Amino acid sequence: MTQVFFYHGAADKIAAACALLSGAYAKKKQMLVYAVDSAVASSVDRMLWTHSALSFVPHCRADSPLAADTPILITDKLDSIALDERLMNLSQEIPPGFSRFESLIEVVGQEESDRDKARDRVKFYKDRGYQVRYFDLSDR
User: How confident is the model over 32-43, as pLDDT tens digits?
Assistant: First the structure.
């Protein structure tokens, strides 16, 4: 069963997501980033280029010719991608087919609308028997 992790209370949701992606890359773990909003996808892409002056996090869009050799992929469609280990959801909705992934990482900001949508997703996962683990980012 998919493990569900909620990283909540992020002052900057994109920066928090990029920090998690950087950590995954440092551990040599692949990650698929689900971002249906093109502005969010572009922000993640841009921040991963500039996140840390001392490190580089290889990433690209899932439809790039380099996708097969890149550990972090950003996409707005999950149905045509073979990765099934880790999914980061940066959308406001339940990712389609999320249950095929070993783990689902949700990043939640401090805005009330983001928190409300996240509560709906938590309820959805719990109602279906998924255990949800929480990590508070508000102190960082």
Answer: 999 999 999 999
